[in-house]
Design a protein that fits this description.
The chain has a single domain, classed as TIM Barrel (Alpha-Beta Barrel), CATH 3.20.20. The protein has a 7-stranded mixed beta sheet. The longest helix is centred in the last third of the chain and has 17 residues. 35% of the residues lie in helices and 20% in strands. It is α/β, with parallel strands linked by helices and 275 residues long.
Length: 275
């Protein structure tokens, strides 16, 4: 009896130890309908999002002394926080570890790169860096998409003209509502992003007004008819808003609340399984 008690005690202590947890990781629910907005402001950029199962993250970049530095404002720039060290290198490490995907058997992962300065100087530097990660990046050649582990989408100070003359692209383009109805292929513009506050006044409290709800449904329907995914930035970042946007089939919930959105989709998944 004493021997059995000792064995049970040792087993319990092993389960509490960090090494035991590290050896038996639990794969998170993969959040293909969520986007980690301004991901780099979290305590552990990229890694916090990955632990919550996010399949899309955002990094803002500046160009300084030939380096692509990640920050929201130019006053927050730090020389060690490069796009490579914070995102591209660890993503490559995950891809190599997980046999060609960021998550084991996971979907294409999205890295949204928001250029904070003139694309005419910033984009050439970004493209040069991306060529060094061709082994993990989705590419586009003569209009044909070659899916890989990581899709880079360029946002911020961008212009479709920056792709002129490229037969091989290492990134796609973050569209805007003005791009709807322009016959752009989804291989060029995979998704549409829009500033919520320029389209709606609803603040996420109570029920969305009927006129605004109808407008949202119209935008979603048009984006989907043209084979674009849809994301709103600056939308209310609370549970009621997440429920409303998800019910309206908005493709990506833009959030700074990683744990909150993870819990929302976890509960939504559990409820749908029960039904």
């Amino acid at each position: 009896m004493r021997a059995l008690s000792v064995i049970l005690s040792i087993t319990f202590l092993l389960k509490l130890s960090p090494s035991f947890a590290a050896e038996t990781p639990t794969e998170p629910l993969l959040l293909t309908q969520a986007h980690a907005h301004n991901d780099y402001v979290h305590e552990r950029p990229l890694f916090d999002a990955l632990e919550q199962g996010f399949c899309s993250v955002e990094a803002d970049i500046f160009l300084r002394d030939g380096k692509l530095l990640v920050a929201h404002e130019s006053t927050q720039i730090a020389p060690e926080k490069t796009l490579q060290t914070l995102y591209l290198d660890p993503l490559r490490a995950h891809v190599q570890k997980n046999h060609g995907r960021v998550f084991p058997n996971g979907p294409e992962f999205t890295l949204l790169v928001d250029m904070k300065e003139d694309w005419k100087t910033l984009y050439p530097a970004l493209r040069s860096v991306l060529t060094n990660y061709a082994d993990i990046l989705t590419t586009f050649q003569n209009g044909v998409k070659h899916t890989n582990a990581v899709l880079v989408i360029i946002s911020g100070n961008r212009d479709l003209n920056m792709f002129d003359g490229e037969s091989l692209r290492y990134a796609a383009y973050d569209g805007d509502l003005k791009d709807l109805g322009q016959n752009h292929p989804s291989t060029l513009i995979p998704w549409i992003s829009s500033n919520w506050k320029t389209q709606f006044s609803w603040n996420g409290r109570g029920t969305m007004p009927e006129t605004e709800s109808h407008k949202l449904q119209t935008i979603v329907a048009q984006a989907h008819a043209e084979h674009f995914r849809l994301r709103f930035w600056g939308a209310p970042d609370n549970l009621n808003s997440w429920k409303t946007l998800s019910a309206a089939s908005v493709d990506l919930i833009n959030t700074d609340n990683l744990a909150g959105v993870q819990k929302f989709f976890q509960e939504t998944s559990s409820n749908s399984q029960i039904k």
